[in-house]
Amino acid sequence: MIRVLAVSSWGTACGIAEHTKLVSSAVASADSEIAVWTPGSETLDPEVTMRLVTQGAHPVQSDARAQVIWLNHHDGLHSRWERNHIINLQARGVKVLVTYHDTLADQNSAKAHMIHRWADAMIVHEPVADLPRAVYLRQGVPALRGVYQTNYTDLGGWPRPVLGTTGFDFPWKNYTRLAALTAEIGWGFMLLSNNITPRIPELRTINPHLLVYDGFRPTDEIVSRLAGCTATAFMYECANTGTSGAIRLGIAARKPVYALGTCRQFRDLLLAEQQSDEGQLINWVYNWETLRRLLVQSWPVDCDPAMVYLAEHDSLDKVGEAYAQIIHGLVAP
Hints:
By secondary structure, the protein is of the alpha/beta class. It folds into 2 domains: 2-140 and 315-331, Glycogen Phosphorylase B (Rossmann fold, 3-Layer(aba) Sandwich), CATH 3.40.50.2000; 152-313, Rossmann fold, CATH 3.40.50.2000. The chain contains 12 helices and 12 strands. It has helices at residues 15-30, 46-55, 83-91, 110-118, 175-185, 200-206, 219-226, 246-253, 267-274, 288-297, 305-313, 316-331, and strands spanning 2-7, 34-37, 68-73, 95-100, 121-124, 135-136, 162-166, 188-193, 210-214, 231-234, 257-260, 283-285. The protein has a 6-stranded parallel β-sheet, with helices on both faces. Strand 10, helix 8 (246-253) and strand 11 (257-260) form a beta-alpha-beta unit. The protein is elongated. The mean pLDDT is 93.
């Protein structure tokens, strides 16, 4: 058995914690010889992780020591992790695998370069020019376990089209503009967001045909509710580091996805389309008027073949297999 200790914000309402959960499950499904253990968010303190490694604590094998430490790394969460912590773990015979979320296309941070230099393996979610040893592996797309049927009572009593989206409520995600646009063209608007509760009255005033699911909900539920929509949209306007996890949930729903092509958090998907033979898969738009026009001209579909292809190509099952191969390579004699 290969024992992996995952260092993450486990047990909190956090996208990194959810990513840890999804990838851990995918690895377990891909390879029964690998056991991923996530003790809790206390391991974000490197001294706690070091004690667990030194003591050999493990929930299944109490006298067994982790062979791989997996940092599902976010700069804010893992700010205390430095070069000496990686070296000290390696000195005890423990391999260090880092999934680094805060990437840029080039000119990455000093922290990224430190990890690239010292970690035994580094995974990134987008192409990076200045981290040549990093393994490029896009974020995985969850499976679609089922479809929640939309309650049309909340939509005026008839099956009007519904635009869905999901993610934490940050201004640059433009939920207010989406509510206004959908109201203008007569669509319902479904929003799944952990921190949207205080703004529900405001958004419902803008679009009375608003379907809100607040609180931090399981990935399976989010995907299944989005699958009941006519389409999904991710109209982000930001230059943040890394790649978007929320748009993978729209892809997983297998309905048409509309996204603002200027947001760098979608760069990996846009580049992948440009470099493949499949052509355009996501409906990229570059202004709000184009989104309005395309929605008015769209029609309901059971599923979008382009999103079916992308969801299968980037499936979490395949991501789990890739992680399993990397982990086996780290501990191979």
